Amino acid sequence: MFGVSESSGTLPVETFFGKVHPDDLPGLQEAMRRHVIGEDNCFQATFRVVLDDKTYWLRGKGCAASRGPDGVAEVILGATVDVTTETTARLESEESRQRLNNLLVNIADMVFELVRTDDGEYELVYVNEGVLDLFGLSIEQAGNDFMSLLEVIQTRFHLRVMSTLSFSAESMSPWHSVFQIEHPRRGKVWAEGYAQPVLGEDGLVHWHGSIRDITERVAMEEELAVTARLDPLTGLANRSLYLDRLTDAISRHKTSAGTQFAVLFLDVDNFKTLNDSLGHAAGDELLVQMAVRLNQHVRTDSSTSRRTQQDTAARLGGDEFIVLIQNVTAGNASKVARRLLDILSKPYRIAGTTVVPTVSIGVVMGDSRYEEAGEILRDADIAMYAAKESGRGCYRLFDSAMHDSAVRKMGLENDLRTAIQNGELRLVYQPIVSLSTGDLECAETLLRWDHPVLGPVSPAEFIPIAEETGTISAIGEWVIEQACAQLVKWRSTNVDIPSISVNLSRDQLSDLQLVKKVGKYVDRHGLPPELIHFEITESTVMRDPGAAQIVLSELRERGHKLSLDDFGTGYSSLSSLHQFPLDYLKIDKSFVHNLAAGDDHLILIRAITRLATVMDIHVVVEGIETAEQLSKLRSAGCELGQGYFFSRPVSPEDLAKLITERWSNRKAA
Q: 431: helix, coil or strand?
């Protein structure tokens, strides 16, 4: 190995030492020195030598064969063995172990090794500094005692940790557990542990795993859970939290006698108008301010997701709020509703403008008939819409008749969508006559619905439904086309009808394409535009006066006559009539019905007639039913009239017969 031949038999010490690795030479020389001078009986050393640029590990051992008088060794006998392979493997193993230990000590997670002994107990084989720090223990306190860790874990989590470890050992499936630690300095700390079980050479189950601090994560999750249960705009409870509270109230009502509760469903009246006029930001600001007032006047606890027996105010979405009131009678619930109506309708300052909104409130008392929260919300919503139909700015207490009405309405909504295709709609006509001559001047077109199951449905019931569902535009176009076709049919059979009038809905009056659509039907049937009159009500005009003025002006320019129906029941006044291009003014029948009560209404009719005449507008009085009414209206100077005294609304065939028998004979005479 050292390049010495057997014939020479000797290796100079200087040559030997020159081959030893410089890092190992001092140790080897010191070991030999101590043996030579007699401090050690023998010497033994493991060292490296470098031969032909290759490193070998040698293990040398020797003893003195003889010593001089001074005890110094004169002859040393020994042997050197090549241990390169085993030493290299051992050093690599030690280096790997040291790297692993350094990694475990400095790793961000806290790592451990745990073993379950033959008697079913648990011992710690290893924990790094991270685990000790997480549990607030020193290495002396922890030792290999697993119970030292368990004692720091909150008692309520002991069973969870131990049972999951036992299951992991039995099934050899990964261990996972979340628990809370009572740290001596940090207080409550949330931790999460993972470990993989393996069967060791000793036949015992070992776990190699990690534990991490999840306190911040748990806090964030709790915050998110709370936030997810609150309305982001107002900070009130959202639908999810409210439904939980309502479900609890239903359960308590079923299990505890006398635990009454009430639900108040609130909707802001005409909120869309505010949004359209002031903008959505102003609408949001109003909702926020209303939520503040609402929150101040109910016993809320909506800042947390925990269940509570306090009252709850919530925002369901849009401009809808809802309140759950615990332990309340029907009388007290009504008082709360009245108080909220007053509080929420006080002025607000929004976007530099004073806003005075109103709300409609539906009230439902919780009782044994309710099984689910959704059922109560449904009935509260029904009661709220009943409040709107009662004039808005009020509350209504739910009763079963409201539910029956809502069910009927829903059925009508669905059936109305196919009424045209199924041939269920038809038109009838009511004459408008001259009060002075009795001649026929026009016939108003009226819509009727013959439901296949319910029979005749009043226009007062289905027209609002058509407007709410958006089917009114399609129905309105159908009416125009059918009326034009009927007029052509009458004229082809020599039935002399001077003109017909057709009612326009609010959606049609807001449709800037209406004139084009009307022209399509009128031109298709070859009719002069002046034969087709259109009637609009005060409410439809005042809903969007700007759009109405544009549409009405275009109709008038095309040659159509225009009538304002139901005058005196809505928003407009005589002074505002000049805004719209009107040909006829129809005084509402309520004026005629009150003629018998005194002269006041007759004086009003006379004043309206005179002013309309000055403005070159013809007056039609509706609702004439008796000869006495006719006489008074004639004396007031009224020009045209309509009502049962002349004819009820009749079918096209009956009107043709009536014209032939009454007005044709009159003309012939």
A: strand
